[in-house]
Amino acid sequence: MTREAQKDIERLKAGEPLDYVIGSVQFLGCKIDLSKGPFIPRPETEYWVERVVEEIKYQISNTKYKIQVLDLFAGSGCVGIAILKHVPHAVLDFVEKSKKFGEQIKINAEINRIDSKRYRILQSNVFSNIAGKYDYIFANPPYIAESRKNRVQKSVLQWEPKSALFGGKDGLRYIRVLLQRAQDHLAPGGKLYMEFDSFQKNAIAKLLHKFGWEHFAFFRDQYGKWRYAVAEDHKS
């Protein structure tokens, strides 16, 4: 057994997630490097992003115009990179609060040979440094409720970044900000796609009404759990 293999076995015995030990994960045909320790992309996210990519490709099939996309809480960049790879007309802004994870996004964009002219990496806390308007906003915010911390796997708590996990006592801290401000950053007819925890569905529906979203729908993941919402700009 090589020294490297022995080190990997020791890391696994210590409880480190396999994807970190391997160093990367596949996401919609993209290789996502995890060397900076971002939140590990989940199959549930891959499931809904794949469906949304197909929807967008259908919607813009007859246009030659560039579509403007925002990937909030970008982390590893997996969502935005998948969009850039599969939607040729897309140009995209990655938004990430952590400078380290901004570097991770750049690594992954280069690994997947994304033209640097098609994206920017912006350091921002949600919309704090964002001025533009977008046709599509994708958001996978930290949404685990601190009150449900005991339901989270120990390896996740020990190894994955807590900043990417927890969204306050009810898990809605960032979702409130997102739903309150996203319409200001959507182009006419634009759409917001947002992941959430299944138990939050009713609370999110109330927030959507509160902040003036008139058109929205909820969708389930491959396991039958409520997983993401789609909300359209109220001015459309």
Short account of what is shown:
The protein is an alpha/beta fold.
Question: Main traits of this protein?
Answer:
seven-stranded mixed beta sheet; two-stranded antiparallel sheet; 9 strands; globular
List the helices and strands and how they pair.
Layout: H1 3-13, H2 18-22, E1 24-27, E2 30-33, H3 43-59, E3 67-72, H4 78-86, E4 90-96, H5 99-111, E5 119-123, E6 134-139, H6 154-159, H7 173-181, E7 186-195, H8 201-210, E8 215-220, E9 226-232
Parallel strand pairs: 3-4, 3-6, 4-5, 6-7
Antiparallel strand pairs: 1-2, 7-9, 8-9
Helix pairs in contact: 3-4
Structure notes:
The chain is of the alpha/beta class and about 240 residues long. It is about 35% helix and about 25% strand. The protein has eight helices and nine strands. The chain has helices spanning about 5-15, 20, 45-60, 80-85, 100-110, 155-160, 175-180, 200-210; strands spanning about 25, 30-35, 65-70, 90-95, 120-125, 135-140, 185-195, 215-220, 225-230. It has a seven-stranded mixed beta sheet, with helices on one face. A two-stranded antiparallel sheet has the order 1-2. α3 (about 45-60) packs parallel to α4 (about 80-85). The longest helix is centred in the first third of the chain and has 17 residues, at about 45-60. It is globular and about 60 Å long.
